[in-house]
């Protein structure tokens, strides 16, 4: 059994010393470091943080041939004549190297004097022929630190993983943090926070998390979680947001500033629900393209709209289904999703299917132009989930029933699903979805949102803008200058010749120093959109441009109850809001 030792005992070095011991092998073999971690569809080239790789057999160093950026062939020891000898029998092979742990996200590694966090896909080399071998993991930690690892412990010390996949699906947190235990349907759960001890500050926290976990089990039609035990790791930092799902654990990143807002606690509970539901949807009920996972390259997954969109839709209902929060908050949250969707021009260019397939190069690589050329499969996936849920309800079914059926027929069996499997499952209770769903996935037109919302007595209401439309957004740059953060494609600012990064100096010969001053110049008043004379600086050259503003556009949309709607709508809405059939 390969043994992996991770040494975090000098945390201020921000280096993790790794040692992998293997039984002797016959002939050369390959080593490689994953290029990405499941759940986060971006080639991260983790190998950029790897240094001092050395492979020895006993005390003899073995020769390494680098085949690719993250792949080596281990040859034998150097022979007298300069050639390599195949690894000798008998003595253990040890692979040693260090990983720089300086990147604080849920899918990278971070080590300092306060804590250690390791995403093991970024840390542990794959050894050819050992993917399906059991592994033993041990940690060396500074005095006073506790390890938090979602793996069963080994009688020999440390932890046991069934294979390489389970090993690198296990995030490691360590530090002097307190840990809180609770149970969900008799299954042991642990909660650990780095940053502040959230359960100590919020005495209802663990009970509410447990209620949300139970609501997730009910949604999938199970009496208990799929994991034999479950670990929540929360990194509570000043700002930031993120989550990464694992089979038996999750890592969450959340901002204290966000938590302090009125909706902050509810949004964190939704993140908890989202990642916990991934225990089934995307981890155990998994796209065929990720069964098994190829860690070395990007696998195109056309069904990410299902894995993330459906999960993003239901995560907003799960706290309410757990008895926490009310219908009004749900309408606010869904309304803000629908508003973001309707205000994203990129939805006219990229279909939901393309968004899923292009995750690796678009969603995870956002820039100032992303709003123009893409639509998130989380966001449009959630909008489609709403439409699907309401369409299924017209046919006497609902989204939960389809999820449960897919879990029972495919997930439980460990069978990966294809797009066709999903379409069939939706078309089971509603046969017209066999043509409608592919259309909605491939089209850049909006699905008929308003039509379905009317079933619930709901309508989308536009909030009118107070200014003419400029098609630009400003920010205060690090040097204090006013710069263009976004310029909408084909919008007035772009047509005037403005670009992202331009510094805005003056409008109509008046010096501009705050973002709000732009509003003063664009405020509605005159009967026709005015032309503004702009003075800008681009790459140290000053120039003048004329910006012809356009008629106002809604600045946001909200989801409201239609006072004209009948009592049957209100009854349907109640069941829908509580995730009831
Ligand atoms: Zn997710």
Can you give a write-up of this model?
With 581 residues, this protein is an alpha+beta fold. Helix content is 28%, strand content 25%. The strands form seven sheets. It has a seven-stranded mixed β-sheet with strand order 5-4-8-2-1-12-14. Strands 16-17-18-20-19 form a five-stranded mixed β-sheet. The longest helix has 16 residues, at 205-220. The two termini are 49 Å apart. The mean pLDDT is 96. Zinc ion (ZN) binds at residues 245, 274, 278, 308, 311.
Main attributes?
581 residues; alpha+beta; Immunoglobulin-like; Neutral Protease, domain 2; Pdz3 Domain; seven-stranded mixed beta sheet; 28 strands; binds zinc ion
Summarize the entry for a quick read:
This protein is an alpha+beta fold.
Helices and strands in order:
Blueprint: E1 3-7, E2 15-22, E3 29-32, E4 50-57, E5 60-61, E6 64-68, E7 71-74, E8 93-100, E9 110-111, E10 116-118, E11 126-127, E12 135-140, E13 146-148, E14 159-161, H1 164-168, E15 172-175, E16 179-184, E17 187-194, H2 198-201, H3 205-220, E18 230-237, E19 241-245, E20 249-255, H4 256-260, H5 264-277, H6 304-314, H7 318-321, H8 327-342, H9 352-357, H10 370-373, H11 379-394, H12 399-411, H13 419-427, H14 433-442, H15 449-453, E21 458-463, E22 472-476, E23 482-487, H16 492-495, E24 503-507, E25 510-511, H17 515-522, E26 531-538, E27 541-548, E28 556-561, H18 567-577
Parallel strand pairs: 1-12, 17-18, 18-20
Antiparallel strand pairs: 1-2, 2-8, 3-7, 3-11, 4-5, 4-8, 6-7, 9-10, 10-15, 12-14, 13-15, 16-17, 19-20, 21-28, 22-23, 24-25, 24-26, 26-27
Helix pairs in contact: 3-5, 6-11, 8-11, 12-13, 13-14
This protein binds zinc ion.
């Amino acid at each position: 059994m390969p043994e992996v030792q991770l040494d975090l005992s000098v945390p201020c070095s921000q280096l993790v010393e790794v040692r992998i011991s293997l039984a002797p092998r016959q002939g050369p073999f390959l080593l490689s470091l994953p290029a990405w971690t499941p759940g986060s569809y971006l080639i991260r080239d983790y190998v950029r943080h790897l240094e001092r790789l050395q492979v020895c057999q006993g005390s003899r160093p073995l020769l390494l041939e680098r085949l690719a950026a993250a792949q080596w062939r281990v040859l034998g020891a150097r022979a007298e004549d300069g050639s390599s000898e195949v690894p000798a029998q008998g003595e253990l092979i040890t692979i040693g190297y260090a990983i720089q742990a300086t990147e604080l996200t849920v899918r990278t590694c971070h080590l300092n004097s306060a804590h250690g966090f390791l995403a093991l896909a970024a840390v542990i080399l794959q050894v050819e022929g050992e993917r399906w071998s059991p592994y033993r993991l041990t940690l060396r930690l500074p005095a006073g630190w506790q390890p938090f690892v979602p793996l069963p412990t080994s009688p020999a010390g440390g932890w046991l993983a069934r294979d390489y996949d389970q090993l690198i699906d296990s995030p490691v947190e360590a530090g002097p943090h307190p840990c809180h235990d609770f149970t969900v349907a008799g299954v042991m759960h642990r909660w650990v926070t780095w940053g502040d001890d959230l359960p100590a500050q919020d005495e209802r926290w663990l009970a509410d998390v447990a209620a949300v976990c139970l609501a997730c089990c009910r949604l999938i039609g199970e009496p208990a979680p799929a994991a034999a035990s479950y670990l929540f790791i929360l990194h509570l930092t000043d700002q930031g947001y993120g989550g990464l799902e694992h089979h038996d654990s999750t890592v969450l990143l959340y901002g204290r500033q966000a938590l302090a807002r009125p909706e902050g606690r509810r949004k964190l509970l939704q993140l908890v629900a989202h990642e916990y539901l991934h225990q089934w949807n995307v981890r155990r009920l998994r796209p065929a393209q990720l069964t098994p996972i190829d860690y070395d390259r990007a696998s195109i997954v056309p069904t990410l709209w299902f894995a993330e969109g459906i999960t993003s839709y239901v995560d907003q209902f799960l706290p309410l289904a757990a008895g926490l929060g009310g219908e009004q908050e749900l309408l606010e949250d869904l309304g803000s999703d629908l508003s973001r969707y309707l205000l994203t021009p990129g939805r006219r260019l990229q279909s939901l299917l393309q968004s899923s397939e292009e995750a690796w190069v678009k969603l995870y690589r956002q820039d100032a132009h992303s709003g123009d050329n893409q639509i998130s499969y989380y966001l449009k996936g959630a909008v489609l989930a709403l439409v699907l849920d309401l369409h299924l309800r017209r046919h006497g079914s609902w989204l939960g029933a389809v999820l449960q059926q897919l879990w029972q027929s495919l997930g439980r069996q460990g069978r990966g699903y294809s797009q066709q499997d999903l379409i069939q499952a939706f078309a089971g209770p509603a046969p017209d979805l066999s043509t409608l769903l592919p259309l909605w996935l491939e089209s850049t037109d909006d699905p008929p949102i308003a039509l379905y919302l009317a079933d619930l007595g709901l309508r989308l209401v536009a909030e009118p803008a107070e200014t003419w439309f400029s098609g630009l957004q400003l920010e205060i740059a690090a040097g204090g200058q006013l710069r263009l953060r976004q310029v909408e494609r084909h919008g007035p600012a772009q047509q005037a010749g403005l670009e992202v990064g331009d510094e805005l100096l003056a409008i109509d010969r008046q010096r501009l120093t705050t973002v709000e001053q732009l509003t003063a110049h664009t405020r509605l008043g005159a009967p026709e959109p005015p032309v503004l004379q702009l003075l800008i600086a681009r790459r140290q050259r000053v120039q003048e441009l004329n910006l012809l503003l356009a008629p106002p556009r809604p600045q946001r949309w909200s989801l409201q109850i239609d006072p004209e709607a009948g009592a049957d709508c209100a009854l349907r809405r109640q069941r829908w809001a509580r995730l009831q059939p």
